[in-house]
Amino acid sequence: MREELAGFTIGVTADRRRDELAALLERRGARVVLAPALRIVPLSDDTELREATRACLDQPPDILMANTGIGMRGWLEAAEGWGLAEPLRSVLAGSYVVARGPKARGAIRAAGLHDQWSPASESCDEVVDHLRRRGVAGQVIAMQLHGERQPDCTLALEAAGATVIEVPVYRWAPPTDPAPLHRLIDLIAGRLVDAVTFTSAPAAEALLRAAGDRSEAVLSALRSDVLASCVGAVTAEPLLRRGVPVSAPGRARLGALVRTIVDELPRRTVTFKAGGHLLTLRGHAAVIDGELRPLAPAPMAVLRALAQSPGRVLSRTALLRTLPRGADEHAVEMAVARLRAGLRAPRVVQTVVKRGYRLRVD
């Protein structure tokens, strides 16, 4: 199959670039569930941002920490609206500029400023370590925030003798419509998606926060059956802290994220022989003799249960536990019938009279 992700379902928690990421995944055959965990709220009219800008003009910063491209652009655009863009650029031009990542670096250079250093890890901790080694005692640092306050970074720099001006350019807010996010949480807990993508650490935190009393079920799924795929090490940190293994590219780019998923998901599939056919299980489909066969959730659940021990008979009661609550033994029979029809290979699933069903391995 040329579409490497055909048969897989992938959740996308990004907001701002969700359409771009979804298109990259769909182009490779994936089914995408869009569920923004957060949205960005600009603060161009916010009193705090104006006050922080005035503070930078009154105390020209010795150091500028540019954390995000969208944040730096938003700050300069807001200053333009207040008639302060040129004075702000003038004071920032005299600063030692640290760009946390390539997007921040691009925004700095587009504004006609010059960046002097960037961390290899794109993490705030590495920035703080670099600045402390360089020496910040008695210096003023303008820290452009990325959605939330960074108290640990601020306190560490203040403890080293710096004065920190926090610049809140935007903040994270819950999605306008929370229904898609709660649907994705249900799908993760039910192991009905194969992977979930995260492009920011706050989005990972927000998804777990929205899960509420289901957060442990979500974490259990992410620790086992559902791949957590993060755009970079900084994004992965909240999940790693909770014992979730993650996949992440070496460079924090959407294209690299998709390539990592293309490499990882097919390796997690189950392949076996049954009824004279070669089957590979993907998220919502089976590949039988090289042909993709999409399946509904109930027949897919039955196939997965049978595939755990090919040749072993599972009773209707055992298979019933794999189906949604409220189902009865008749629902098992219907799921098996739909499975046989969907595979178009009737010999794969064998009925064992008065005992149940098994995958035919002889």
From TrEMBL:
Q: Which Pfam families match?
A: HEM4, Trans_reg_C
| Boundaries of every OmpR/PhoB-type domain copy | 269-361
**Stored PROSITE patterns:** OMPR_PHOB (PS51755)
Q: Which residues bind DNA?
A: 269-361
Task: Tell me the Gene Ontology biological-process terms attached to this UniProt entry.
Answer: phosphorelay signal transduction system; regulation of DNA-templated transcription; uroporphyrinogen III biosynthetic process
What InterPro entries does the record tag this protein with? 4pyrrol_syn_uPrphyn_synt_sf, 4pyrrol_synth_uPrphyn_synth, OmpR/PhoB-type_DNA-bd, Sig_transdc_resp-reg_C-effctor, UROS/Hem4, WH-like_DNA-bd_sf
Tell me the GO molecular function terms: DNA binding; uroporphyrinogen-III synthase activity
UniProt keyword list: DNA-binding
NCBIfam families with a match to the protein in the record:
PRK07239.1
Recorded hits in PANTHER family, A to Z, give:
BLR5956 PROTEIN (PTHR40082:SF1)
Q: What is this protein called?
A: Uroporphyrinogen-III synthase
Q: Which organism is it from?
A: Micromonospora violae
